[in-house]
Amino acid sequence: MRRSIVHEGAGNLKYEIREIVTVAREIRALGQPITWENIGDPIEKGEDIAPWIRDILRGLVDETPSWGYCDTAGVPETRAFLADIVNRREGGAQITPDDLIFFNGIGDAVARVYGQLKREARILGPSPAYSTHSSAEAAHSGYNHVTYDLDPYNGWLPNVEDIRNKVKYNDSIAGILILSPDNPTGVVWPREILDEIVKIAQEHDLFLIADEIYSHIVFPGQPHMHMSQWVQDVPGIAMRGISKEYPWPGGRCGWIEILNRGKDDNFGTFADSLLAAKRLEVCSTTLPQMSIPRVFGDARYPLHLARRARMFSDRADQAVAAFRGCDAVIVNKPGGAFYLTVMFKEGVLNNKQTLPIADSVVRERIEELVKNVSDDKRFVYYLMGATGIVVVPLTGFYCAHPGFRVTLLETDDAKRAWIFKTLRESIDQYLAG
């Protein structure tokens, strides 16, 4: 073309969690049965929706307003309901319904928030990084994502000094991203670290983003705080949704809560631009929004959340136990969400190791695929070819540490035990090769 039409950041639009599906489907077509452990979809892994939540959704289908457009920012009654929840948190920031904007899932919200930023304004995010955030941040700027380290030798907690130095010596950084519970590591940040992040933001006049999609899947004994409770006077954006906690990932219903909008004029203008951009789309899906006051407000909902948190905590214990005694990896029990990160220690992987693959056609294709890939992706591909288990390489999460992420979502107890046992045995066999 006479002019290039490709955005400078187009090459950064990578999503390993989904991209590996293409490879897995090819291997499945060659005859290898596949066990999907790559994506956080509870429905795909067999979780049933609570009957009472189903009943609420059925009833909404019969209500005519659920079929129409709603206000651009979202259903007014739902925004008022959620604002009231925020405002009832002790000592937290106060908002109005106008500080909430609904999107078609958190992924849509992420794209809009980064997309409306000035190109030179960077958001510092964690590494390992959740691909939706890292890709969107890199794509908006046209440069590699800027990151701070989560320390695998300290339970994947963030290295605060690394954050402080990155901010101090890079004045393009305008904000800091926090995921707690984190994806892919499941780490839950304690209050003292959050307070340190607030101090850094105050000192350098930054805003904060907190992805809280897993905020209601926090394991027993772990700290549990929403952004509004710790952000103090710093401008912030909390991202929430129902995909993981109803769970209803196909509902594509997420929202942002804009905190301390009035504390900074520039931030306030940016927040206004998010709503202005949303008007071009008209609105997000109405029915899921209408369900929120009825589901969240039901007396059974806290029990529903507590049951699922215990369930995933128990599964995490099972997964960690499967890797006990495996000196080649670091496995920290997550504090929330429904993932487990397995990190290979430095130097244990190389590009000569293999797993036996019985089917010669599958083996030949895997051997083609592993040419010129990272060491952990090589393991992941051989694992897929030999066992059919599909996990995500840790380097696919914008991370220098080799490893992989597996979910805790399998509902069949026997199959889940087989998955964890097979992963452990495959590591031992791979490293012995």
Description:
The protein has helices at 16-29, 51-61, 76-87, 106-115, 131-141, 160-168, 191-204, 227-230, 265-279, 286-296, 301-322, 360-369, 375-387, 413-432, and strands spanning 35-36, 100-103, 122-127, 147-151, 157-158, 173-179, 207-211, 236-241, 254-259, 329-331, 339-344, 389-390, 392-393, 403-407. It is an alpha/beta fold and 433 residues long. It folds into two domains: 10-47 and 302-432, Aspartate Aminotransferase, domain 1; 51-296, 3-Layer(aba) Sandwich (Aspartate Aminotransferase, domain 2). The strands form three sheets. An eight-stranded mixed β-sheet has the order 2-9-8-7-6-3-4-5, sandwiched between helices. Helix 2 (51-61) crosses helix 10 (286-296) and helix 6 runs parallel beside helix 7. The longest helix has 22 residues, at 301-322. It is globular, with a radius of gyration of 22 Å. The chain starts with 15 loop residues before the first helix and ends with a helix. The model has no long low-confidence stretch (mean pLDDT 94).
What structural category characterises the helix and strand content? Answer: alpha/beta
CATH top level assignment of the largest domain: Alpha Beta
Global geometry:
globular
Order of helices and strands: HEHHEHEHEEHEHEHEEHHHEEHHEEEH
| Mean of pLDDT | 94
Figure out the total of helices. Answer: 14
- Strand order in the sheet with the most strands: 2-9-8-7-6-3-4-5
Poorly predicted ranges (pLDDT <50, ≥5 residues)?
Answer: none
Secondary structure: helix percent: 40-55%
In CATH, the architecture of the largest domain is 3-Layer(aba) Sandwich
